[in-house]
Predict the structure of Nucleoside triphosphate pyrophosphohydrolase.
Amino acid sequence: MSDDLIHNPTGGMPRLREIMRRLRDQNSGCPWDLEQTFATIAPYTIEEAYEVADAIERKEWDELKGELGDLLFQSVFHAQMAEEAGLFTFDEVADGMSDKMVARHPHVFGDESRDKSPEQQTRDWETIKAAERASKKETGVLDGVALGLPALLRAVKLQKRAARVGFDWPTTDEVMDKLREEMDELREAEDDDHRFEEFGDLLFVMANLGRHMGIDPEAALRAANGKFTRRFKSIEAALAKDGRRPEDSNLEEMDRLWDAAKAVEKAAKKSDI
């Protein structure tokens, strides 16, 4: 078999698909790639999606190109395994997505008017998706919310679905009241299993509070993670000036250095206003 396509730097999608096919070739493929399954590859797929989001958040556009390639490769990998199992082909994946996009955008590809707000288009999109779920016999309000989603994201999606049929608190005040109730229940939990349950309830209400306040809880937590990382690195940098590491310090000193890093960040924000 000729390797011309494999080594063609402008081979595009056909080249990538051929590389994947060769990696999974039973006689000459890569032993690691050959032993993979949908289940073993799925965690990498999720990881690559987050790395795409990370590059976008950091505005690292050169990195984004590479991360999108990594994510695309995950789709090619899954499709190759599906084709080997006689389930579906990559072309069927692409055609299915194309059909879905055409069906969900009748105001672009059909005879509906484009003269409507983004909010109305969002409502129309959800109406179309509901019809699609019904055609799959997903008749329950919460049917079709993927189990594999990150837990906070899935919580918000479940809550949005329930809210569409009126199962929702009318204002943020009621959510705040529920939050205090769940915190009290967590304090009063008497064993590990009960604490586990109440902690989950507390997180679920926090996701609901974010939804009511128009805050994406996943994005907010990522921002908090980033802030923690920046400030802890400031602690490390301050200690390094004395030739020390965090384990050479104590909580009191590190807390003081944390407050100093926090003050610097606040001052920088004020100067940007």
User: Anything to note?
Assistant: The mean pLDDT is 91. The CA atoms of residues 94 and 100 lie 10 Å apart. The two ends are 63 Å apart (CA to CA).
